Amino acid sequence: MYNAARMQYRGYGVNLGRMRDVSAEKLVAGARDVINNRSYAAAVRAASAVFRSRPQNPRQRAAWWIDHVIRHGGGHLRSYALDMAWYEYLMLDMLVVVLVIPLVLVTLAVTACICCCMRRHTVAVTKHHKQQ
């Protein structure tokens, strides 16, 4: 669905909606629209020109990277994630912070409410006993 919407937004084709909602008539009408409307072909040609205007083809780019690593080594390309502890890599330290701090705050708030209610109840019971 996302790819079809993106394709329609960029003018490459027609979004027919969900597959379960596509009928034969809708499919044929969409295909005829794409075939007969020259704007779709022009948009695809323009996108193809942008894609093909790269300075290197994949083989040349691979050769450049191999030559780069041979000349400079690969240390600067090494990911920092390889040096991280597993709990940092999985962001468990952040998960603990995000879950524990709100949990502590909620626990403190509930405890404060319970203590306040118990104190009021104790004061009310004491006043009641004094009046008798």
Lay out the secondary structure.
Blueprint: H1 2-9, H2 24-36, H3 38-52, H4 58-72, H5 86-89, H6 92-131
Biggest sheet statistics = none
Low-confidence stretches: none
What global shape is seen?
flat
Oligomer: single chain
- Average pLDDT level: 88
Total helical segments: 6
- Which class best fits the helix and strand makeup? mainly alpha
| SSE arrangement, N to C | HHHHHH
Sheet-strand content, in percent, reads under 5%
Helix content: over 70%
Plain-language structure description:
- The protein is mostly helical.
- The protein folds into two domains: 1-57, no CATH class; 80-132.
- It has six helices and no strands.
- The N and C termini lie far apart (76 Å).
Keywords:
mainly alpha; 72% helix; 2 domains; single chain; flat; 132 residues
Characterize this entry briefly:
The protein is an all-alpha fold. It has helices spanning 2-9, 24-36, 38-52, 58-72, 86-89, 92-131.
